[in-house]
Amino acid sequence: MFILKTSNSISQIARLQSPKFRQTGSNCTLSFWYYNYGESVGAAELQLLVDGLKQPTVLWRTYYSEGNQWLKAVIQLGRLPRPFQFSLEKISLGVYEGVSAIDDIRFENCALPPPALRCEGPNRFWCRDTKACIDSLLVCDLVDDCGDGSDEDSCDPDLQCDFENGLCNWEQDVQDDFDWIRIRGPTPTVNTGPLKDHTTGTARGHYLYLESSEPRQFRDKAVLLSPLFSPSGSGACAFRFHYHMFGKEVYKLSVFKRTMSNTKGWLLWYKAGNQENRWIRQTLFIRSSKPFQILVKGIIGDGFTGDIGLDDVSFLGCTLYNGNLPTISTTTSGTSVPATLPMNNCTEKEFVCRASGRCIQMIQKCDFRPDCSDKSDESACVMEVCDFEDKDLCGWHQPALEQMSGNSSISITKTFKWQLGRGANLYPEQGHCPLTDHTTCTEEGWYLFADSSNGEFGHTADIATPVISLTGPRCKIIFWNHMNGSTIGSLEVLYKSSKKTSKLWTQSGSQGPQWNRAEVFLGIRSNFQVIFRAKRGVSYMGDVAVDDITFEDCSPLLISHKPCTSEEFMCANKYCIPKNNLCDFINDCGDNSDESPSI
After folding, report:
1. Residue limits of the MAM domain (predicted)?
2. Which of 352, 385, 446, 555 sits in a 20 to 30 Å window from 433, CA-based?
3. Using one digit for the tens of pLDDT, what is the confidence trace for 475-493?
């Protein structure tokens, strides 16, 4: 079927109507091939006309020429219990240069389930009037799968919500960035979001959605909270919902379970990216030995064509909990440093060993050599070896972040910063992040990375050691770095003293999807910090990561109380060093006497 021009009038409409259909089953889809080509070919749309509803529902649209080709359209109809028909309308722009055509119209899976003579088994449900035998997971899910409504009879309204009259007993989270919006009909932005709800399949029905247009920003999140449920250890509790993720810049939808009221919970399921213009059903089986709550979190993508829809949420085999979830304590118990120092005669320029009260020189604190019997002089320092396992930062800290956290008016949530990560917590679409750490080579291993989904181009993130008092002549830093992604920024290693900051090592651009070894020579230095600085690239496609940071041979030289051996050289400052270290272009003595031309 194709359209011919009959007049030159502006906005002339060609209308093609279908026969009338009585009803459809819950899995019904309509597909056809269309052709819309020409400089001023104009728009076309397919409308659903349901008996008893004045407002038509737009099911499909094309706005402009889509090239000299046939394209396929697939439209989800779902359960339509009333008689209906379709109207295909083509709008001309007056100066009509183009051709519109349609062919190969097909309905699939549109019949109700057939009647059955028997329906046995714990996982089956026998429909009352139609005698169809359906899966018991379809019972009380807000969809009339039987065709007679019997699978939706006698359902607990507190365990389901179609959003036709509000949020039911669900709530918006107050700790997120914005709220889910209740709407009916299409979302305001074209080429993203649903055109209709899932419950009624028409523009009359309501659903929830996330609006991705301004003022929303990339990675803004909206969280919806379920009512509380009693423990479900057997896994008999099922959570059913329908989601819609259509648009080029759709980002993520996730479902979490939490048993503590002030936590983000445990990830149960997620989906990322464009899933086409359709409602998709998802069923999750919940196991929990404690009372729990479900969180549905949507995250905005990097653009306005990223709307996400949610409809027809329901629980089966779950019991509401009449109480409150406990709150996890945010305070830490105990401390590594006693509240009061032991009795001592130390001066202000000396360090007091915490266990014995012994006095040592302040230069001996944080020098990679424990001088106190309890090692307290090295307790508040950077660790010699750090693999970040057990989520331990090993003394590394972020000074800028600490200053921001002290200012209640500044949010650090979306700040470009270093943080701990691991492959098990990543989404597969984040291929620019390390999927495994370097230490264990598994998804469960931890590493440190600067998350470029936060911040803007050129922003920097610093993570630093505490002040290191003194290092030896052969001290060096060995670490592994991961820099992969089309818009990766740079990584620098800096030396910072009270007087200056200098660059020791730098690397920029993508280095491939593997961990790479790096080595930075420090030598003898005093009262300084080492800083890893990540600089963000032009977009979020590329995170800088580091792992297995080692300070090697960094303890300072000791003055021997014995004469140097025949295999050693006595420096001018009385240190003893191996003779093999003479004239090797390294200041092993600390006074350069081992590199003197007079040796």
Report:
1. 1-112, 159-320, 384-556
2. 385
3. 999 999 999 888 899 999 9
